[in-house]
């Protein structure tokens, strides 16, 4: 049965954040709010957690997992970013974007796109997520909580707990976080490709 954490959206309770992070470090799988949708998240090296995310979402090996990072210093350990691209990404973060970039050797092979050897990264603008990342000290391996064959994402923490009570270890609720997923932009080719138009404004990348 999943634990339920009601976390203040502006001033997250330190005790709750510590307990959630302890679950993640113990290879737990959590549902947590972001600045777009709720997401599934686990520790980067949690092979079982990754398998559980794939099972919950019915994902194949072409799916881009996302490393949710605290800042650019952390992000730079896991993806390759040129100086010119750094300025572009910096202008759009933190925010509601996922960037697909070539992965470094720090990223486990099972997380990479099977052919491209890329991974998604993002730096969110959400107080609770940032508190979790500060406490954890490493990225959260994540995937948006979009259930198969569901027309709309789940937006209520209590409903998520009811639906996934025996599939995740904790549900973190800090209120409604919206129904629109991140905008996804692939920078692994010669030109940026907008893979999904979502919550983030695409005009920065369509000059």
From TrEMBL:
Matches recorded under InterPro entries: DHBP_synth_RibB-like_a/b_dom (IPR017945), Sua5-like_dom (IPR006070), SUA5_domain (IPR052532)
PANTHER family: DHBP SYNTHASE RIBB-LIKE ALPHA/BETA DOMAIN-CONTAINING PROTEIN, THREONYLCARBAMOYL-AMP SYNTHASE
Domain YrdC-like: 14-200
Protein name: Threonylcarbamoyl-AMP synthase
Single Gene Ontology MF annotation: double-stranded RNA binding
Pfam families documented for this protein: Sua5_yciO_yrdC
């Amino acid at each position: 049965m999943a634990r339920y954490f009601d976390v203040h959206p502006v001033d997250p309770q330190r005790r709750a954040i510590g307990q959630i992070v302890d679950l993640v470090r113990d290879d737990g799988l959590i549902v947590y709010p972001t600045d777009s949708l709720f997401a599934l998240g686990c520790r980067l090296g949690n092979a079982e957690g990754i398998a559980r995310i794939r099972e919950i979402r019915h994902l194949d090996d072409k799916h881009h997992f996302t490393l949710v990072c605290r800042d650019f210093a952390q992000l730079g350990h896991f993806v390759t970013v040129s100086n010119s691209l750094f300025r572009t990404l910096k202008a759009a973060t933190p925010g509601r974007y996922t960037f697909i970039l070539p992965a470094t050797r720090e990223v486990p092979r099972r997380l990479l796109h099977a052919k491209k050897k890329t991974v998604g990264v993002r730096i969110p603008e959400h107080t609770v997520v940032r508190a979790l990342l500060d406490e954890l000290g490493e990225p959260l391996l994540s995937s948006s909580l979009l259930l198969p064959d569901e027309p709309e994402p789940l937006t209520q923490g209590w409903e998520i707990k009811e639906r996934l009570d025996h599939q995740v270890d904790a549900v973190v609720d800090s209120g409604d976080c919206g129904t629109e997923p991140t905008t996804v932009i692939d920078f692994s080719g010669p030109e940026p490709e907008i893979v999904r138009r979502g919550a983030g404004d695409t005009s920065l990348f369509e000059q």
